[in-house]
Amino acid sequence: MKRQKNLFVLLGVLLVGGLASLPWQLRQWKSLEAERQKTAFQEKRLRELSQASQKTSEARTHLPTDPASRMEAALALVKTGDSTHALPLLHALEEDSHRIPGITSPLGDLYRQVGQVDRAYALLSSALLLTPNDPATLVRMAYLELSLGEREAAMEHIHKAQAAAPNDPEPYLAEAFYQDQESKFALAEPLLKKALAAAPERWNTAALLADNQARQGRYDQALESLDRLVAEHPGETQILAQQARTLLDAANAQSSKASEYRKKATEVLETAQKLAPGDASLPFERGRAWRDLGETAKARQAWEESYRLKPTYAKLRGQLGALLLRTGEIERGRRLIAEEEQAERERTDYNVAVGKVMQARGDEQARRQFAHWCATHQKPARAILEWERLLSAHPNDPEATQELARLKNNGME
């Protein structure tokens, strides 16, 4: 009887103890399940990236014959920034464009993305002649005009697209991009919210909104949004990279959490780099984190990897050069810094030249001077565009005819 009583006491203890531990067990199970789903998603993403990489490699060595395959390969190459191999595909598609319905507008946008603004303008203008109220083409033309510094024309096309398709998120995203370029982040925020309301399933819009919040100094709100997006889309490197950048910016703004944020950023970037090993921005950001944590050797290793992937990545040569100077590698450090300073001067000079010609709208002589400037400052596509515009207004203009022929004969296009 005593043994039976003791057994009931033991069962009671086990039962109470088991019930008491249920919340912990449930939390542990949820954590393990979330980790399992994250791993499965990332493994799936890696397989997709491997397949995409294989298709991209094939496109570099074998030009696809059918239009659909060419377009798919061109999209993949443009996405990876490989304009050298993308251009032959774009040219082949343009030659067959009269036989491929609806390709003119998206093809023009791809030309824009690889810097061929003359072909982009020609194709998008042609598409607008056929379908002047098509929202997608209006938005594509607006992005091109923004890249050319033609803001008023861009805004006209954006507003026309919004009127034609008030429930389409793209025109609002385009206007938000414009406001972002102008550093008017508070004006961009409601536009991003409109775009998100129009298509709430699009995580990239939610990510842009989080970035906007960070740019306005609301880091806690931005990081909360990004944590949620990472949990929902654990294999998207764009979100991971943005989360890391936001953590690093928040670390500079909130000194009490600086070390914690920087360490977390390195972990996030490590995961992202496994998913996108060819993305130069990821090791660049890791270098930032390691440098600010005082880990000079790790910072250099990360920046050297970024340099291997893309030597001209913005600000990379300046950062790596400064680090090399501090560690005694004077000659290479000075060379890298000089290259970065030269690139920055070229960007500034181009922006100044664009600003001048925009202020002198209607002044044909200013347009001619700008076209000559572009031709002599490694901006051949912009030079061709300007001479083509002048020739459109004056079909028999001898200077425009001569300069266009010279540029194209020299293979500068």
UniProtKB/TrEMBL annotation:
Keywords: Repeat, TPR repeat. It comes from the Bacteria. The keyword Repeat applies. The keyword Repeat applies. Residues 43-67 are annotated as: Disordered. TPR repeats lie at residues 101-134. Gene3D superfamilies: Tetratricopeptide repeat domain. PANTHER family: BARDET-BIEDL SYNDROME 4 PROTEIN, PTHR44186. This is Tetratricopeptide (TPR) repeat protein. It comes from Armatimonas rosea.
